[in-house]
Amino acid sequence: MDKLQALLPGKVSTEPEDLFCYGFDASGLEAEPAAVVWPQSVQDVSTILQFAFQQSIPVISRGAGTGMTGGTVPSKGSIILSLEKMNKILEIDTENMTVLVEAGVINGRLQEDLRRHNLFYPPDPTSMHYCTIGGNVAENAGGPRALKYGVTGDYVMGLEAVLSDGRIITTGVKTVKGVVGYDLSRLIVGSEGTLAVVTKIRLRVLPLPEDCITLLVLFKDLERAGDAVKNIIAGGLVPSTLEFLDHETIKAIEHFKPIGLPGDVQALLLVELDGHPAVITRESEQLGSICRKLGGDVIMAEDERSRKRLWDARRAISPALFHLKPGKMNEDIVVPRNKITEMLKTLKTLSAETGITIVNFGHAGDGNIHVNLMVDKNDQDEYKKAVQLISEIFRVTLELGGTISGEHGVGLTKSDYISLEIKPDVLNLMREIKRVFDPRNILNPGKIFP
Predict the structure, then answer these.
(1) Domain covering 211-318 in this structure, CATH number
(2) Domain 2-82's class?
(3) Predicted confidence pLDDT, tens digits, the chain (450 residues)
(4) Looking at domain 89-207, which of 3.30.465.10, 2.60.34.10, 2.30.29.30, 3.40.50.2000 is its CATH number?
C-alpha cells in the first residue's frame, strides 16, 4: 500500500489498531483489511478507486459501521474506504425544501440542523445518532417513521458517486419532477456499496409537523396487540410511528434501562401521531378506542420529557439485548400488516418447539418485525439449531407474502438466503447490472450475491 500512501499522504493507515477498528460492524462478523483510507473529497475517492481498479484490489466503502448484516466487513486484502471525514452539510435550501450533504453526515445531526429551519428529514433509523446518511443510502434505511413517511429512497433526489474505475458521476435532479432516462439514483440506493461509492446526496425535506402526541398501549395478550395494529390501519389511521415490543423485549428494557412497565405486560405499542393539533387529538381518541376494545391500556405521554424517556427506552433495545446475549442473531423480516398476528403466533410456537428464546420488536405499522434469536454462539449445538430456525422463519415469512429483509439489507448474513425470495432469472439480471457498474468486481465483493 506504499503507492496509495504516496498518492494520499496522511490519509492512509496500515496500523494494526486501525485495521482492527475498521474490521467489523454491528453484525458481529469481523475480518482484517489491508488498509484503511479516509478521503476528504470526491477527488480523493476517485484516486483511491483508480488505484484499486488498476491493481484489482477490493474496496469496501463504510459509514459508521452500524449495519447489521456484515455489509462493511472487509474481504481479504481489501481497502476500507471510510467516508466519516466527508461530513459537511453543504446546502439547506429552504425555498425548495432540499438539502445537499456529504455521505459522512450523521443522520441525527442533520435532523437537529433542519429543526432550526422548521424542517425535518423523516427517515430515522434506531441508530440515527451514529449512522451516516451515506450508510442509510447504501442500505435504503427506514426507521419508526417509515409507516407514514417512507424510507431513505423516497427522499433521495440525486447523487454524486464514484464508479469502480474512478469516474465521477451525478444522477437525478434538483426539481420535484424529472423523468429523463433511467433512474440511476434509485438503482444505487440500497445497493450496499456494490455499484458505486456515494459521496454526496441531495435529499428532499418536509415542514416540521405542528404538534405530536405519543401514546403507550399495554396489552396482556400478545395476539391482541397484533390485532390492534391491523385494526388501527384498517380504521384509516396512519400514525407517524407504530412500534411493537413483546414481553421478552420489555423484560430486557426493564433490566437494562427501567421505565417502570408492569411485569404482566405481554406486548406494548408505542404510537405517535403528528400534524395539526385538532386532527391528531381526534385521531388519538379514535386509536385509543380501537385499542381499548382489544383490552389495551392506553397511556398518553404527558410532556416532552416523558416522550423522550419512552423513545430512549425504545432505542435502547438493541444494546439491552446485546447485554443479555452478545451472540444474539438479529433478522428483520416483513409481512403484510394483516399477517402480523399470524407471524407472531408462529414465532411463539417455534420458540417453544426449539427451546430458543425469540425476542420480537419492530415497526409493526409497516409489518417489519425484528426477530432476535437469543443464542450463545459458543454453544455449537444451539448455534446450529438457530441457523436452521432462521431458515424456517424465512420460509414462513415468504409463505405469508413477506420479505426476508425490510431495512438491514443482505450483506453477508443473508446472502445464502436471497435465492429463497428472488428467482434465478432476476438474480442473474442483478449480477449482470453489477458487472456493468463494476467489471472487475472490486466494490464490496461477496456481498448480496451468494
Answers:
(1) 3.30.70.3450
(2) alpha beta
(3) 889 999 999 999 999 999 999 999 999 899 999 999 999 999 999 999 999 999 999 999 999 999 999 999 999 999 999 999 999 999 999 999 999 999 999 999 999 999 999 999 999 999 999 999 999 999 999 999 999 999 999 999 999 999 999 999 999 999 999 999 999 999 999 999 999 999 999 999 999 999 999 999 999 999 999 999 999 999 999 999 999 999 999 999 998 888 888 888 999 999 999 999 999 999 999 999 999 999 999 999 988 888 988 888 888 898 889 888 888 899 999 999 999 999 999 999 999 999 999 999 999 999 999 999 999 888 889 999 999 999 999 999 999 999 999 999 999 999 999 999 999 999 999 999 999 999 999 999 999 998
(4) 3.30.465.10
Q: How far apart are CA 296 and CA 439, in angstroms?
A: 56
Q: Please tell me the distance from the alpha carbon of residue 134 to that of residue 84, in angstroms, as a whole number.
A: 9
Considering only the top CATH level, what class is 325-434? alpha beta
Residues 350 and 206: their CA atoms lie apart, in Å, by 42
